[in-house]
Design brief:
about 240 residues; alpha+beta; eight-stranded mixed beta sheet; three-stranded antiparallel beta sheet; 11 strands; about 25% strand; globular
Length: about 240
Amino acid sequence: MSPVRIAMSIEMFHRLPRNPAYKYEYFDGNAVLSPRPRYYHALLDMESAQLPFPAKVPVRPLKATDWPSLPGLFQSAFARHLPFSALPDTERRTTAEAALETTRTGGDGLLIGPACFVATEGTQLLGASLITLLPPGDPEEFSTFAWGGEVPADALERAEGWPHLTWILVDGWETGRGIGTALLAASVLVLRQMGYNDLLSTFLLGNEISAMWHWRCGFRLLSYPGSFRRRLSQCDAPDLP
């Protein structure tokens, strides 16, 4: 995404509301807002998770025929959230299609098909949960979020790696009905049957709704891999005289 440039006085610039998804700078009578996405990771202990099931709306496994409808759901889910909401309509659609195609084809890790679900009401698609498999390792390290090679053919059979809630999509007009939580509960049930005990997830800094949803569902916030405090904790303590 390109920076946003808005002509205004320095006084107006100082009164601008801030969003963590952007970097705010002022040059030559212009406010310059640069997208600065920062992601945080959270972990759900699925053994102790208390999630409602069955759902208040019909939830069923994701089908191959559902994929063409997912970009529209993606657009609706993130239409009010920065930085996605700052895109023109045509770019939103293109971005949604590209993001979902990356997930479908394994760019976000192996798609765990049996753990992916959609929520429906009649013929309308209300939500979707897409789960992928990340490599084993420390989830508080950047390197854990990419395989860096071929996924072992028997990874799912051996319950290897980390299941990751790559997308939880809920129609923007249907929020507050528990659809996201019901989809999560369905995915958790299958993942537990497959032998997994923990589920990773990721949310964007500045998306308070997503952060609060993760907290309500029992996710525990993990340390940001690039944090200065984390780097210090990994350094050897200096020898004291």
